[in-house]
Predict the 3D structure of the following.
Amino acid sequence: MCGIVGYIGKKRAVDIILKGLSHLEYRGYDSAGIALVSKNDAHIYKASGKLNNLKEIISREKEENISTTAGIGHTRWATHGLPTEVNAHPHTCNCGSLIIVHNGIIENYKDLKPELEQKGCRFKSQTDTEVAAHLIAHEFDNKKDLLKAVQSAVKKLKGAYAFCVMHKSMPDKIIAARKNAPLIIGTGEGENFIASDIPAIIEYTKKAIYVSDNQVAEVKADSVKIYNETGDLISNKVENLPFEPVALSKMGYKHFMLKEIHEQPDVVRNVLVDKIQNEDKAVLLDDVKLSGEKLSKINRIQIIACGTSLHAGLVGKYVIEELTKIPVDVEASSEYIYRNTIADENTLVIGISQSGETADTITAIKQAKENKSHILIITNRKDSAMARLADSLLLINAGIEVSVAATKSYMAQLISIYALAIYLAETTGKTGNSKLKELKKELLTLPSKLEIVLNDTKNIKEIAKKYSSSKDFIFIARGINYPSALEGALKLKEISYINATGYPAGELKHGPIAMLDETMPVLAILNKGIVFDKVLSNCEEAKARQARLIGVTNFIDEKHINLFDDLVIIPEISDMVSPALNIVVLQLLAYHISEYLGKDVDQPRNLAKSVTVE
Ligand code: AGP
């Protein structure tokens, strides 16, 4: 979501902050701003739209205004107020002395605003953040101490925040504070960095302090002091940052999304390497703390997640129920919360999240934790808020995913879920060994099958071109591939803005069939298996209404070939593992349609990589 970068040290802050913000661009934003602060002087620049607009404004500035060694910057994803220049951060108090950038939402901003207005505060923007700027400025007027002002102001705020605060009169410090929004402090020699995520600072330092909820930090060029909620000075560990800057390169691909789609065979190998060594060995999951005794008491499993991670969870329902016979419910995190969910100490609650920072899922996990359920987190980020809430942790090892549209992380989630399901089955003994052995064998051969699909994408590109002018799209499938239909439709919507919907194929006749005519493409996923004939009948129904039919299949006989306008044939694969192969076709289709339409593939409008507000 929004990005924060702060710098204080001996170099030109503007260069470091702008570069840092550019490394956060992938997370999605719609305006940007920066404040460069020196003794009794602050220069603030803002622009709506892309970071280049801000860079352009700054490039026209006089050198003496932008040569400071301290400053804070921000990319904003609009929540309160349009993505305009006036709503862009930084925000200030009336006189412009106190300057703030903020991620998150101040939920009680409307309650605080009238009192501040009575005290003379003039609001220029529609944002919640400006309330925090005025509130801290008032505390500063009383206390004349920026750290104390922030400590006192945050006590009055409800909601989520990661702040960087500066004051013109004391340019030697940045005050940072955090509650339910990510924030790290990168440490260097005579310089320190603040950021909402690692890519912003990885080029400058490999060491960082993770700020925890309700902590406030005073960051100077040569010191970092962290205070807990009660104001005591504490010492947080300095940790090594986990990834290399090379992850942020496109490696010759036109877009990160395409690069990440092509990385998937290696992603599968990476997930499997330490979990499933061969089909004869039991699955190893180092940080999953579910003993046979604990599992024997588990009588239900709840999976909570959002978006693509939710679709991975839906595949998980089919696999885990099949292998463990334990009932599994899957629910969007935003629906799980704010009601009395039935979960107790005998419930295993699985949270799935690429970023580990999705606010809806964090709230859902906290709710489940209160019910004393065992929390198992499946995530790509071991440093995330969700990982820190986990009783058991399953890291998916997908590497950093830059494109807003999740592809390789979905693949890594699926493979991790298969490994987890086998682990649960092996621990509970609910499934015969030969079936589990067969599944492991299938997973181990998956990378080479993915390579077959990825090495010849000509047909998919042609289909993409042919259907790229469609206004709507329907994806149908049944059983374990129903989530693939949902995910394929989500990918297409996200990056091409074509209205696409995934349906269980059997539901077509219960309503959606009314929309079918010769303008409507219907993409059907048909895998050899128990529902094959049923999906084929649903395809016949669609064809009878003149829909344009695209089949993605690993099995088709001569007599049915003519039913389809277009076909993508994938390698032979079992029904259970087929979602991991089918999805690559749908990812490529969405990618090439978006590319033909000239859309911003990696940073689609209105979307953010990690959604840190509820
Ligand atoms: C995926 O393409 C999306 N950008 C989005 O649906 C995403 O999966 C969702 O916001 C959940 O994110 P998470 O996995 O980081 O929790």
Summary: The longest strand covers residues 31-38.
